[in-house]
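Lab manual, section 2.4: Encoding a predicted structure.

Procedure: take the sequence of the chain (120 residues), apply the prediction step described in section 2.3, and record the output as structure tokens. A sample record is shown.
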Amino acid sequence: MKDYDPRNVFLTEAGHFTPWLADNIHLINQIVGYNIKVLDTEYLLKPTNRRIDILGITADKKNFVVIENQLETADLDHYARIQLYISLINDQIDTDIFPFVKANTKKILVILWNKGDAPL
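Recorded output:
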């Protein structure tokens, strides 16, 4: 697979990048080692009025999966969003697709993820 800057390939996150990821969930499955089925994109999570980029479920239908993707630099706010989403839908698996993460944020996320047994 060739590396591309997603900001040069996708015009918008919600209209282009998220649908492409959902259509190519098999690639994410290969990377993270899960068999995720997409339930919805841009899923409106009440009562927050925020949208989950991709809401999925594991093949065994035991766990919801939240994918928060980002075309721009991700920070701890994105991690906090995922934690909120997970707490509201009682999720046990979370996956993040961040093409650009600030170096200090990445160190913090690695520490947090390793404590939670989440895939990196």
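Check your result against the sample. The longest strand covers residues 36-45.
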